[in-house]
Amino acid sequence: MGPSRSSFRMPEGPELHLASHFVNETCKGLVFGGCVEKSSVSRNPEVPFESSAYHISALARGKELRLTLSPLPGSQPPQKPLSLVFRFGMSGSFQLVPAEALPRHAHLRFYTAPPAPRLALCFVDIRRFGHWDPGGEWQPGRGPCVLLEYERFSLCCETGPVGDSRVQSKCGPFDHLADDLQVENVLRNLSDRAFDRPICEALLDQRFFNGIGNYLRAEILYRSAGRLLKIPPFEKARTVLEALQQCRPSPELTLSQKIKAKLQNPDLLELCHLVPKEVVQLGGKGYGPERGEEDFAAFRAWLRCYGVPGMSSLRDRHGRTIWFQGDPGPLAPKEDLPLSSKPISRTQRARKHPPKSIAQQSEGASLQQNQETPTAPENGKRRGRQASTGRRRRPPKSKPDTQPKEAGESSAS
């Protein structure tokens, strides 16, 4: 069975970049004013910002997005620019809507200033695993962005500094060339224990592959099978990446020769840039002109492996499903066959894979597991312990003064 409809919205690097582009395009020329409004149910911090007139801009890096609020000259009270760094969790996105028609689960709102009809830029997060940090700093420990750092390299790797228009003109069309920062960040750290794990798990480690998530890892590994390499998802990561060290292009090659070689046969690290870039170029995914599921049609047609009928799937050690074709590799879980080829009863599945708490399934703080911090870990942990005993307890009765949850959200969201 393929991924659920909602899983197509799970934000990875390309979705953060699409969100950044959406904010910059839709907020261009708009003047915002007043306080930043947070929903009463969100457990994220308040945003200490108020200005009579300010602009909003955005920049994405890997699986984070920085929103900058810039007061205009003469605005009151005097205020310095403020940056917020967002991690989208499992369902975060931005929407620009009329102020009187706020969407459900709009947990942070930025309103335009009068007299024009008021609009609201909203951070919408149904499951409430998204997080924002008013400190404005990228999360420490994340590696180079698989999209942005590659583009930066393409501008400066040859003969000019970043921003040199001559270099942009020369190298712009070939921004898929391998980035020294990204490649060396991986190849110089192959002794790290992360690379003892299967390659499908290493690809989720944001210290090395900032922006890669569950659907991207499946598509990257599947597309590598059509190249000179065929990489099973449960092959040891170090084995796969050490082989790349033997295949780096000779420094004696000319630029045109390097470009031709990489166009014909991009390696795994280059696919980590090319595949996310394809998704960005598709557009849509909630930020296009179509409405609802139609905005995801191009993305669904683009998928070759993730959730595609006929593909096999297994759960990795974090319980996340990896889709693939062919041999899973020597580090595949021994107690489980690919889900598509061995039906498992509900009782067997419960014994082998006890239900995880929402806090475990969501994107949490560990960069190694490619997760973000859930906003309500206590409830999730309690539910996780109950699940591990195999006993189902009756839910506690709600107290009269308990704040009702928003419709459609779980108790741990």
UniProtKB/TrEMBL annotation:
<dbReference type="InterPro" id="IPR012319">
    <property type="entry name" value="FPG_cat"/>
</dbReference>
<keyword id="KW-0227">DNA damage</keyword>
<dbReference type="Pfam" id="PF09292">
    <property type="entry name" value="Neil1-DNA_bind"/>
</dbReference>
<keyword id="KW-0238">DNA-binding</keyword>
<feature type="domain" description="Formamidopyrimidine-DNA glycosylase catalytic">
    <location>
        <begin position="11"/>
        <end position="130"/>
    </location>
</feature>
<comment type="similarity">
    <text>Belongs to the FPG family.</text>
</comment>
<keyword id="KW-0234">DNA repair</keyword>
<feature type="compositionally biased region" description="Basic residues">
    <location>
        <begin position="382"/>
        <end position="397"/>
    </location>
</feature>
<protein>
    <recommendedName>
        <fullName>DNA-(apurinic or apyrimidinic site) lyase</fullName>
        <ecNumber>4.2.99.18</ecNumber>
    </recommendedName>
</protein>
<dbReference type="InterPro" id="IPR035937">
    <property type="entry name" value="FPG_N"/>
</dbReference>
<keyword id="KW-0456">Lyase</keyword>
<keyword id="KW-0378">Hydrolase</keyword>
<dbReference type="InterPro" id="IPR015886">
    <property type="entry name" value="H2TH_FPG"/>
</dbReference>
<keyword id="KW-0511">Multifunctional enzyme</keyword>
<feature type="compositionally biased region" description="Polar residues">
    <location>
        <begin position="358"/>
        <end position="376"/>
    </location>
</feature>
<dbReference type="InterPro" id="IPR015371">
    <property type="entry name" value="Endonuclease-VIII_DNA-bd"/>
</dbReference>
<feature type="compositionally biased region" description="Basic and acidic residues">
    <location>
        <begin position="398"/>
        <end position="413"/>
    </location>
</feature>
<feature type="region of interest" description="Disordered">
    <location>
        <begin position="325"/>
        <end position="413"/>
    </location>
</feature>
<dbReference type="Pfam" id="PF01149">
    <property type="entry name" value="Fapy_DNA_glyco"/>
</dbReference>
<keyword id="KW-0326">Glycosidase</keyword>
<dbReference type="InterPro" id="IPR010979">
    <property type="entry name" value="Ribosomal_uS13-like_H2TH"/>
</dbReference>
